[in-house]
């Protein structure tokens, strides 16, 4: 049981191990967005954004909502942004 929690925590942090995924989470902390909006905000193509969203979805960090043919993404738990802020603060303090 305890090893399972450590494994899940490690997988969670692996999902946060790419700067683009952190940027996506920060965008989604402000509002839900579709891939096309994220593409414009991040200046990335659709395949890159979709690949990162797939990792975030697999780790249950984002959820989807369909409106016609458009899929909107949002955070499953707003606490994830607090984790990112705390880690960023570590590096801001140590400068």
TrEMBL record:
The keyword Repeat does not apply. Gene3D superfamilies: Winged helix-like DNA-binding domain superfamily/Winged helix DNA-binding domain (1.10.10.10). The keyword Thylakoid does not apply. Residues 1-95 form the HTH arsR-type domain. InterPro entries: ArsR-like_HTH, HTH_ArsR_DNA-bd_dom, Metal_resp_trans_reg, WH-like_DNA-bd_sf, WH_DNA-bd_sf. SUPFAM superfamilies: Winged helix' DNA-binding domain (SSF46785). GO terms for molecular function: DNA binding; DNA-binding transcription factor activity. It holds the Pfam family HTH_5. It comes from the Bacteria. Keywords: DNA-binding, Transcription, Transcription regulation. PROSITE patterns: HTH_ARSR_2. NCBIfam families: HTH_metalloreg (NF033788). PANTHER family: ARSENICAL RESISTANCE OPERON REPRESSOR ARSR-RELATED. This is Transcriptional regulator, ArsR family.
